[in-house]
Design goal:
The complex is a heterodimer of chains A (about 350) and B (about 260). Chain A is an all-alpha fold and about 350 residues long. Chain A has eleven helices and no strands. Chain A has a domain of about 240 residues: MetI-like fold (Orthogonal Bundle), CATH 1.10.3720.10. In chain A, α3 crosses α11. Chain A starts with about 30 loop residues before the first helix and ends in an 8-residue tail after the last helix. The relative contact order of chain A is 0.14. Chain B has a domain of about 180 residues: Rossmann fold. Chain B starts with a strand and ends in a 5-residue tail after the last helix. In chain B, α3 runs parallel beside α6 and α4 crosses α6. With about 260 residues, chain B is of the alpha/beta class. The radius of gyration of chain B is 18 Å and the shape is globular. The chains are: A mainly alpha (about 350), B alpha/beta (about 260). Chains A and B meet through α7 and α8 of A and α2, α3, α6 and α7 of B.
């Protein structure tokens, strides 16, 4: 049989050969003149693209360097010294025991947001891409995109003024009914300024980006694959499950990571809603338990002395590292089943 | 297993546009029926009405009846999903699910129809279907590799294995060899000859030699001009169609005077 099957992916990266391909040897003058305009443009484009690529690395390195240099005094100072010089630094703490709960709170808030937002976003994206009539779909897509344009301080106002009266009874019911589950341990705070409220607001904030990216990915599902499923006797939902979701899987993960990035770094809304605390606590219905890194920086920066600023920057460094790790993890998940992505 | 299809006076519309007009034909069970004709004459469109796949395109509808063993596929209480489980389809371009392994591809339709299937039954079905598609020997050592890693001809046979795994009564093939090289084409043609012992096969082809090689009966479709509906010109035994067709247009097309 004509088995030209190659399971190995093409080793040449896209754009790889461009760099050294159109480089004819310096031949006769006539030949050089004929191609000189093309080659000039080609070279200019190559350097522009390379420059842009290098720039992003340089910016990243500069940020990392800035964080490390400015955090250094706090990282090297002992806990006692930090406690003496910084008014809001907890007693008997070291820099690690200070930043630990902050990292924990940040991750917990972002995870809650992601957990709440992703299923809804996938649902909206599928509705827009595969269920809604065309006119409704474009309108709905527009509305979802609009959500992304609302400034986070507005979300903060909404989350601290409008939302609490609505969610307090619900949170109370959760604590009463599912209090045995550590996350929902009661009593629920009567103010509603708890991490679950923060997670809810963050979920609304990251919904548009996850929805928009997922929708684009779902729309790109090859019609051939959808027809293959339908021709096997799949219902609409079965077609989505066999053709659309597997195709969109890595795109949805990327979308979720973009959302997670925003949730990790969100400052204003958290600052305005959450009643902070520095505990390793899973109690998301009680006030004064957790705090996020970004909100903590914003809260303490205005009255921080030099050592205080350095400490806050050290926490910022931790956030930077977390975000980097999250993105690497996402890449690893996407890459794991690369053979099955359909890219070959 | 194989069943007769009786089409009566079928008109096919895309919204208001009449794409195919007045087709009546009888498709015999356990035989190969080939549709030939110039591009745009509606033969693929007509093929897709036999398992209601044309309905995937918004605005597409039909007038007339398509009866399979006396049941109108377009009856009010007939679910298109159920029709497609009876009438399998193979497309112009091979379209295995890229995220699934070879094994999962073969089982894809079965898992839709009958959610639970024991592992041993599944193994058996994978083997028999791949045997049925003449692919088993080439892939038996890599059933867990992605189906998209196979060559074009192998992918097309994988799609045939996937279609016959659900044990349909009819198999529709929409130019199944148009994206394949001659040797892969030959493999598919051999397969069609074997499959007609069990299935009713309808194949659309641009290749008249192919129609002459594989089919028992041939239907010639033609179109009067752009914007006009396609029509069935005539249908007869393949031998008759290619030696002494009754219509001048058929003879012109077959002898290469147009198309």
């Amino acid at each position: 049989m004509t088995s030209t099957a190659s399971t190995a992916p093409d080793p040449t990266p896209p754009g790889g050969p461009v760099a050294d391909e159109p480089r004819p040897s310096r031949g006769t003058g006539a030949r050089r003149r004929a191609g000189v305009g093309d080659r000039g443009a080609n070279r200019a484009f190559r350097w522009t693209a390379t420059g842009a690529g290098a720039l992003i690395l340089a910016v990243l390195a500069a940020v990392a360097l800035f964080l490390v240099i400015r955090a250094w005094p706090a990282l090297t100072a002992g806990g006692a010294e930090l406690g003496e010089t910084i008014s809001w630094f907890p007693e008997d703490a070291s820099i690690l025991s200070f930043v630990g709960p902050l990292i924990f709170g940040t991750l917990l808030a972002a995870a809650l947001a992601l957990l709440l937002a992703t299923p809804v976003a996938i649902g909206i994206a599928l509705f827009i891409s595969h269920y809604a009539p065309r006119r409704l779909a474009s309108g709905l897509g527009y509305v979802v995109d609009l959500l992304a344009a609302i400034p986070s301080v507005v979300y903060g106002l909404w989350g601290s003024l409008v939302l609490p009266p609505v969610v307090i009874p619900v949170w109370g019911w959760l604590a009463d009914t599912f209090g045995w589950f550590p996350l929902f341990a009661g009593p629920a705070s009567p103010t509603g300024r708890v991490l679950l409220t923060v997670g809810l607001v963050l979920a609304v904030m990251i919904l548009p980006i996850i929805t928009a990216v997922s929708r684009e990915v779902f729309l790109q599902t090859p019609g051939l694959h959808e027809e293959a499923a339908l021709a096997l006797g799949a219902t609409r939902w079965e077609m989505i499950r066999t053709a659309v979701l597997p195709f969109g899987r890595s795109g949805v993960i990327s979308a979720a990571m973009l959302g997670l990035g925003r949730a990790l770094g969100e400052t204003m809304a958290v600052l305005m809603i959450l009643s902070p605390g520095l505990l390793y606590s899973f109690k998301i219905l009680q006030a004064g338990q957790q705090q996020t890194i970004a909100a903590n920086i914003a809260a303490n920066f205005p009255e921080a002395n030099p050592m205080g600023v350095s400490t806050l920057i050290a926490t910022g460094l931790a956030l930077f590292v977390i975000t980097l790790l999250v993105n690497m993890a996402a890449r690893a998940i996407v890459a794991r089943r690369k053979d099955f992505s359909g890219a070959n | 297993m194989a069943q007769r299809i009786d089409v009566k006076d079928l008109d096919i519309y895309y919204s208001d546009f009449l794409a195919v007009q007045g087709v009546s034909m009888l498709i015999e069970p356990k035989s190969v029926t080939a549709f030939i004709g110039p591009s745009g004459c509606g033969k693929s469109t007509f093929l897709r009405t036999l398992n209601r796949m044309h309905e995937v395109i918004p605005g597409a509808r039909v007038d007339g009846t398509v009866e399979m063993e006396g049941v109108d596929l377009y009856g009010a209480d007939v679910d298109p999903v159920a029709v497609r489980r009876q009438v399998g389809m193979v497309f112009q371009r091979p379209n295995p699910f890229p995220t699934m392994s070879i094994r999962e591809n073969v089982l894809a339709g079965v898992k839709l129809n009958n959610k639970r299937i024991s592992k041993s039954a599944a193994d058996e079905l994978v083997e028999s279907s791949l045997h049925g598609a003449n692919l088993w020997n080439e892939v038996k050592d890599r059933l867990d590799r992605p189906g998209s890693g196979l060559s074009g001809g192998q992918q097309q046979r994988l799609c045939i294995a996937r279609a016959i795994a659900v044990k349909p009564q009819v198999l529709l093939m929409d130019e199944p060899c148009s994206a394949l090289d001659p040797i892969s084409t030959l493999a598919i043609e051999d397969l069609v000859a074997e499959l007609k012992d069990e299935y009713t096969i309808v194949i659309v082809t641009h290749n008249m030699q192919q129609a002459a090689r594989v089919s028992d009966r041939t239907a010639f479709f033609n179109i009067a001009g752009t914007g006009k509906p396609g029509r069935l010109v005539e249908m007869d035994d393949t031998a008759t169609m290619f030696s002494s067709p009754s219509q001048q247009a058929t003879e012109d097309y077959i002898s290469g005077r147009f198309g």
